[in-house]
Amino acid sequence: MTARKLDGKAVAAQIKSELKERVAALRARGITPGLGTVLVGADPASEVYVRGKHRDCREVGIESLQVRLPQSSSLEQITEAVAQLNRNPACTGFIVQLPLPEHIDEEAVLSAVDPEKDADGLHPVNLGRLVLDVDHRQDFPVPCTPRGIVELALRCGLDWNGKNVCVVGRGRTVGRPLTLLLQRHDINATVECCHRGTRDLAAHTARADVVVAAAGVPGLIGAKMVKPGAVVFDVGITRRESTAGGKAKIAGDVDPGVWETAGWLTPNPGGVGPMTRAMLLVNLVEAAQRQCAARENRDNSVKL
Predict the structure, then answer these.
(1) Are 52 and 182 part of one and the same domain?
(2) Which of 54, 82, 114 is the endpoint of a domain?
(3) Which of 71, 78, 117 has its CA nearest to residue 94?
(4) Could you report the per-residue pLDDT of 126-181, keeping only the tens digit for each?
């Protein structure tokens, strides 16, 4: 058996094509979506990621607002930059690129973001909404990687309903919110979340219909740990610097041998990463649509 590829690049391209039409419709209603980014310092990986986000924006007609601050910036300077984007009507939504410098309290910075402009879906208010809103219409931003994982499977014809899912990793950006998202009534999966305290990880992954590896440990999930025919998402990323001074290589959490066991598998890179970026744009466009609807409701109230 050789696993079929869950092609995140192809699905993300399809989503961006759909977003072009939605952005054009918003512009016709007088709303131009704008993505803001706050980048502190000069981490090479963060710079590449932020450039990619703004390149995606150009592809679909979204404006870009870039804020760059030096590594030595204080918490007050960073939160002031966040406050300016909160107030800026040209900014529909924005992200603070992580990680921040070690001397900065990340929680304080993320909490300063207006929840309605939280393009990453990581604000405590929006994570709280994800906890509470298990059976209602989703009208708030959801963390991009979990949303991308769910959407990638659905667009490839895979159904989450009733599936046993093993999420490996309990981080704030993937593991914890994905566990919550998969339990929504409209998705309806049965989920267990494994982590460094889990005993006999292989026993958990081997009985799962779907394995999501998001621990950031290269090669953690081997072929014998996966049920034949299972769906596997390789989410974790570890950058390994080239000894020859060349481009850094990316290592995923899933061993290459899993291709011979799984039924479906995401490549890494090229699987979940493009979907994460696409979902950032979806969050942004949905925020613009909510803002547009709110503005039109206010205008109609004034006329009445």
Answers:
(1) no
(2) 114
(3) 117
(4) 999 999 876 666 789 999 999 999 999 999 999 999 999 999 999 999 999 999 99
DSSP state, residue 268:
S
For position 258, which CATH number holds?
3.40.50.720
Catalytic positions, written as ranges: 53, 97, 120
Residue 165 has phi, psi (to 5 degrees) of: -115, 130
Q: How many domains does the chain have?
A: 2
Q: Do 227 and 201 touch, CB atoms closer than 8 A?
A: no
Q: How far is CA 45 from CA 39, 172, 237, in A?
A: 11, 19, 11
Beta-sheet strands, E only, within the chain = 4-5, 34-40, 63-69, 93-96, 164-168, 190-194, 210-213, 231-234, 237-240, 249-252, 264-265
**Each residue's pLDDT tens digit, 175-203:** 999 999 999 999 999 999 999 999 999 99
Same domain, 65 and 185: no
Quote the pTM value. Answer: 0.93
